[in-house]
Amino acid sequence: MASPAPQDVPVGSEMIRLGSFMKYAGMLDSGGDVKEAIIDGYVKVNGEIDRRRGRQLQAGDVVTFEGRSFRVQV
């Protein structure tokens, strides 16, 4: 079964940090929950686990968490 297409999330700037993007996209409500999910390895960026909350995302990057995917748009 194919994964659904990622939902585009316009961020209004060239770059955004992973933790900020997850909160902005509504993936999780609190910064503490975001930090825990990232550190525990539940978050993928472009198909690979990334444990860096401060990772800089650019337009086109896809963040996946709990089966939902979101694509960074400028």
Automatic annotation (TrEMBL):
Alphabetized UniProt keyword annotations: RNA-binding
Taxonomic superkingdom: Bacteria
InterPro entries: S4_RNA-bd_sf (IPR036986)
Record-annotated membrane-spanning stretches: none
A GO molecular-function descriptor: RNA binding
Alphabetized CDD domains for the sequence: S4
Matches recorded under Pfam families: S4_2 (PF13275)
Record has RNA-binding as a keyword: yes
Name of the protein: Ribosome-associated protein
Organism: Microbacterium enclense
